[in-house]
Amino acid sequence: MNKTRTLITAAVIAALAPMTAAAQSMTLDYSAGGGLYMIQMDCERHAANFFVVRVTADRGNHPRLNRFFKDSKASWCQQKSTASYKSKHSVAAGVKYHRGHLIAANTVDNSPERVANSFFMTNVLPMTVQLNTGAWKRAEQMVECLRENEPVTVMGGPLWGGPHKNDYFVKSHGIETPSYFWRVTLTNRYAIGWIMPNSVEAKARMLPQYRVDLEEISKRIRSAPWAPYTIGGTPPAKWLSLPDSNCKKRHLS
159-172, pLDDT tens digit by residue? Predict the structure, then answer.
């Protein structure tokens, strides 16, 4: 790990201290072979509570895997199963869940090892099908567009508690289901944050409605892990437009 990344990693962990003070936590650093790529686990919940990844122009295309794994370094701190999230109770309620990547495999596909790390269950939480293939995915596509022009840092995590039923996978995986996910995308010029509901309403077209100020996220997580970075101003309207699947970079320049 180079000196700059070491300093940023240490600063991010320090900024997370208020969020993890009451929890037994474990930091997993998957940065080998590329830029900053880190997940912090809440061992009491057996789930990730924070992720951060920094990427530059996409020069890799290593393939996705077709299965998920436990991370031996996480031991008892992680979920107890790699199986898909299936619950007859959630299906009866009209809700289906995916094993949703916090850090997308495509974001870290510059090496086979980094892609494989993204399929650890430490990087996975229950996301509704609509969120995983909708609003969350659109935010991932925005990163793919932006990274071609300048380095991009992405961080986020789950928000627990709320109006949604959360015990579907306690027995099978040992984890609750987040009610929301927060996400912050940072470039050298701009910063944008979202709080997305883990619900059937979270389709791609809804992403602009989930935008919030970073101060709102900071209140919810009782921390400001973006503090080590220079925060830019509010992006222009065209920057916030939804990229299509072909990554129309003209919208994000």
Answer: 998 766 678 999 99
User: What does pTM read for this prediction?
Assistant: 0.88
Handedness of CA 49, 52, 58, 61 (dihedral sign): negative
Which helix or strand (DSSP H or E) is residue 27 part of? strand 25-29
Query: Is the Cβ–Cβ distance between 81 and 99 less than 8 Å?
Result: no
The answer, yes or no, to whether residue 240 has pLDDT greater than 90, is: no
Q: What does the CA dihedral 239, 13, 169, 180 come to, rounded to 10 degrees? A: -30
Q: What is the mean pLDDT of residues 42-54?
A: 94
Taking the C-alpha atoms of residue 1 and residue 153, their distance in angstroms, rounded to an integer, is 17
**Three-state DSSP class for residue 157:** strand
Inter-residue contact 187 to 93 (CB < 8 Å): no
CA dist., res. 223 & res. 225, Å (int): 6
> Which pLDDT band, with edges at 50, 70 and 90, does 253 fall under?
very low
Distances (CA, A) of 34 to 2, 62, 131: 10, 14, 28
Cα gap 53→31, rounded to integer Å: 9
Other CB atoms within 10 A of residue 15 CB? 17
Instruction: Write the CA distances from 87 to 55, 57, 83, 163, 170, integer angstroms.
Output: 35, 39, 12, 18, 10
181: left (phi over 0), alpha (psi -120 to 50) or beta: beta
